[in-house]
UniProtKB/TrEMBL annotation:
PROSITE patterns: HTH_ARAC_FAMILY_1 (PS00041), HTH_ARAC_FAMILY_2 (PS01124), RESPONSE_REGULATORY (PS50110). Keywords: DNA-binding, Phosphoprotein, Transcription, Transcription regulation. The lineage of its organism: Bacteria, Bacillati, Bacillota, Bacilli, Bacillales. This is Response regulator. CDD domains: REC_YesN-like. Residues 452-550 form the HTH araC/xylS-type domain. Residues 3-120 form the Response regulatory domain.
């Protein structure tokens, strides 16, 4: 839809153009008409104008002056001038005002339509060019962000290039940092993400964290944020004020700036927790990190936040942490202590005692976190012991494939995948629940299979020795365990099941023609008829002979 405004002080001309264009079906047009510049101005102020067709000479404000006003509001508007005067002065003035075309009155309908069509095509071409440029701008920005990320990662992980290269990189990548000044580095870590957050959600919230930090600090210093792996990194520099008004806001002493930022960090944490519902920890470097020391400072800060993992969430640390280590050191843990607890955990896990295992594992993590500055290598040792314990249990029972994705086998091999120790504890508890559930299901299947085999053996061997001791030896179980297991699976004791099967078989055989009672007794494993008769009468209420005779008469 294109918006067209027609302006001429002669009502007949403007009405004629309006009616002609309204009848035309070449384009979708929204038409307005005015018989004076002031009326046209009122329409223009409330509606977008894509094409203006206006007379040049009008009383009061003329067409040239009207165009000047329209262009202030709608600078991309295409202007077509109409005039009954072909003098050079008006043509030159129209061209200076970027007229799309200049038509001499009287002008026929086809000429107006053709000129209008060219104007619409040019607008469409400009829109398409604008879209292409906008997409190119987005792609350029994405490339710029990627190049910035690569540059910063090189600073964080290796010896930086020469100072002149750093200067050119900062300039070309439009990073607002100065190569001749030291930096204060700040490392941030989201301690715990909600489980239902997607990678896109996390990226958006990480950017929101950057925005909150910069909102607090940008008035007092230069600051640039970057995302790296699991961490956010900020480079901060003292900054010269741009105006006398900024002189009081900018802090130009690096030591004072570091102190001031440290004072603000608790407020920043509170804002992030309030607005984003996220716990975030920060580590602040010394106030004078040179460009050549950035990778060393970054390594030190990562190690510090990893060593301080026992503080749980929302840590605020400074790079020199010796005083904090003395203050919060806590009891020292030794390797033998870890192995002792691991052996207890493994014993509970193998026994299938889920509640006791969960209680012991929780206690294990509580003890570990009493030492705030637990050496990172020792953390890895503890993680390795726990991982080995679970892997040993899984491999012995062939359960690894069952937990490949849930709760995730990969997290059992990489310590860095866990944000902090509470997250690690939650993972191991979920893993234990899953394994114990799988093992319990497997045990139930095994028990059922064993009892079904024993029951089938009894049915097929009623004439042989099927005593509890004989069955226990045959199936390699203790008599007590076999008796208890059979009752649990079948809901009936082993002796009652055997008795029931023998009575049922005896009643079946006694009704068979030509079979003597003595033969039935032998078939069921009884050595003499009197003992069989006593057994049968006790459980059926009649002797075998009475049962046979009674049923024989009823069948006649």
């Amino acid at each position: 839809m294109f918006n067209v405004l027609l302006v001429d002080d002669e009502p007949f001309i403007v009405d004629s153009m309006f009616n002609m264009l309204e009848r035309s079906d070449r384009n979708e047009l929204l038409l307005w008409k005015a018989t004076s510049a002031s009326e046209a101005m009122a329409i223009m102020q409330e509606n977008r104008i894509d094409i203006l067709i206006t007379d040049v000479r009008m009383p009061g404000m003329n067409g040239i002056e009207l165009v000047e006003q329209v262009k202030k509001h709608w600078r991309n508007c295409k202007v077509i001038f109409l005039s009954g005067y072909s003098d050079y002065e008006y043509l030159q003035s129209a061209l200076r005002h970027d007229a799309f075309d200049y038509l001499l009155k009287p002008v026929d309908d086809d000429t107006i339509l053709e000129t209008l069509q060219r104007g619409i095509l040019e607008i469409e071409a400009e829109l398409q060019t604008h879209d292409v440029m906008a997409r190119a701008e987005i792609q350029l920005q994405k490339a710029q962000n990627l190049l910035q990320k690569e540059f910063v990662e090189s600073l964080l992980t290796s010896q930086p290039p020469a100072a002149i290269t750093i200067e050119s990189q900062l300039r070309e990548l439009q990073i607002p940092l100065l190569p001749d000044r030291s930096v204060i580095m700040m490392l941030g870590r989201v301690d715990r993400w909600p489980q239902d957050y997607s990678p896109k959600d996390k990226l958006l919230l990480q950017n929101a964290v950057h925005n909150i930090v910069e909102e607090y600090l940008h008035r007092i210093c230069r600051i640039q944020s970057f995302s790296e792996s699991r961490y956010s990194v900020w480079f901060i520099q003292v900054d010269e004020p741009d105006s006398p008004e900024e002189d009081q806001a900018k802090i130009q002493d690096p030591v004072k700036l570091q102190w001031y930022i440290n004072e603000l960090l608790e407020k920043i944490q509170q804002s992030i927790r309030h607005y984003l519902r996220l716990p975030v920890s920060f580590v602040l470097s010394k106030p004078d990190v040179e460009w050549g020391q950035i990778h060393q400072a970054y390594h030190s800060m990562r190690e510090l936040i990893q060593r301080g993992i026992g503080l749980d969430e929302e840590i605020i640390l400074v790079e020199q942490a010796d005083d904090m280590q003395v203050r919060f050191g806590g009891p020292e843990w030794m390797s033998q202590d870890v192995r002792k607890h691991i052996n207890q955990l493994l014993s509970l896990l193998e026994s299938g005692n889920g509640p006791a295992f969960r209680l012991e594992l929780t206690r294990f993590f509580q003890l570990a976190q009493q030492s705030v500055f637990l050496d990172y290598a020792f953390q890895l040792e503890i993680f390795a012991h726990l991982s080995a314990m679970f892997l040993t249990y899984m491999n012995a029972r062939k359960l690894t494939s069952a937990i490949e994705n849930d709760p995730g086998l990969d997290s059992l091999a990489h310590y860095g995948k866990h944000a902090n120790w509470p997250a690690l504890e939650t993972y191991f508890l979920r893993l234990a629940d899953r394994l114990l559930s799988l093992a319990e299901g497997e045990r139930k299947d095994q028990k059922k299979e064993i009892i079904d085999q024993i029951d089938a053996y009894i049915v097929e061997n009623l004439n042989r020795n099927i005593s509890l001791s004989h069955l226990a030896k045959r199936f390699h179980l203790s008599p007590f365990y076999l008796s208890r297991l059979f009752h649990a699976e079948k809901g009936i004791s082993l002796s009652d099941r055997t008795k029931m099967l023998k009575i049922s078989k005896a009643m079946e055989l006694l009704l068979a023609e030509g079979i003597k009672i003595q033969e039935v007794a032998l078939e069921l494993g009884f050595d003499n008829v009197p003992y069989f008769t006593k057994f049968f009468k006790k459980n059926v209420g009649v002797t075998p002979l009475e049962y046979k005779q009674s049923n024989s008469q009823s069948m006649k």
